[in-house]
Amino acid sequence: MNLTARQIELVENSWDFVILNTKEAGEIFYGRLFTLDPSLRPLFKGDIQAQAERLIAMISFAVHKLNTISEIVADVKSLGVRHKNYNVKPEHYSTVAEALLWTLEKGLGSQWTDETKTAWITVYTILSKTMIDAANEA
Asked: Whole-model pTM?
């Protein structure tokens, strides 16, 4: 699965909202995630706001490397292995995707289009598949 230049542009532009509203976006995301699957809450140790900041930083790193995604494959694989060690299961990735897309939709409002949603789904699918495959190989 490859990203088009248009998909990269849509993801980068829509991610700007999150960067400008990191605290709010993190609260919305984790609130939605734990509503969708309360059993995930124990996987997150410590302060959820600090976790949200790490999540935003990690996604920002990936978003800014989409034009050269091959440069971050090793990092994404390592992240997948770490998540396995945190007891993250492959099925959790779809719940995270749902919470992320919902957060973006709520934050972007009328700027959330089908085209933007498809771009995010493509990015998330590439990254999560890389993480899951690395975790399965570990």
From this structure: 0.91
